[in-house]
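Thought: the user asked what peptidyl-tRNA hydrolase looks like in 3D. I have the sequence; next I should run the structure tool and report back without guessing.
Action: structure_tool
Action Input:
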Amino acid sequence: MHNTRRNLSKSTSNKSEEPWLAVTLRPENLLPGVLIGFLLGLFVDFSFLSRRGAPQDTSSLPSALSKRQSQSLSSGVTGEELKVVLVVRQDLKMGAGKIASQCAHAATGLYAELSQRNRSLLRQWEQFGQAKIVVSCKNQQEMNKLKEMAERCGLPTYIVSDAGRTQVRSGSRTVLAIGPGRKADVDSVTGKLRLL
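Observation:
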């Protein structure tokens, strides 16, 4: 009885010693994997195209995207270089690290919001290097005017409201992100602001 157990363990250990690449490249393992991957890729691409071509329901858009913005975004911008401008309030007197973290919140918040609504716009922005320019505005009133102007132009916007854990009061609006959009469109809103 002991001999049969040893023989069984030897035969199973020989099979496990076979290199994983040799097992993977066998036709009975490789072909189904390639076929499944190909079909999954087709499904993902075609589902994206059908969403893009279908009219969007704008009633469920986040509050930061108006109907005009969503219509402008659904039409897409093709072949033009895009940029995002981050507008920082100067009256809050934030330190350099705080400004950097608030700008990061603005960029990632805008990106996350748009990844749900217009991936083609984000892809185009990515193709052109994800240009981000940081400028400053005087106060909350100027930031509000810039946001309104951007929305009238159909540009996406995102405002960061601080949690109030460090340098500024809770709920303070620290940074406004505008774009991605055509340079001319974004510059029509932010072109006169000072670089930070």
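Thought: the tool returned a structure. Summarizing for the user.
Final Answer: Structure for peptidyl-tRNA hydrolase predicted. Helices lie at 2-16, 20-24, 27-53, 67-75, 96-117, 119-127, 140-152, 183-190. Confidence is low (pLDDT under 50) at residues 8-13, 47-75.
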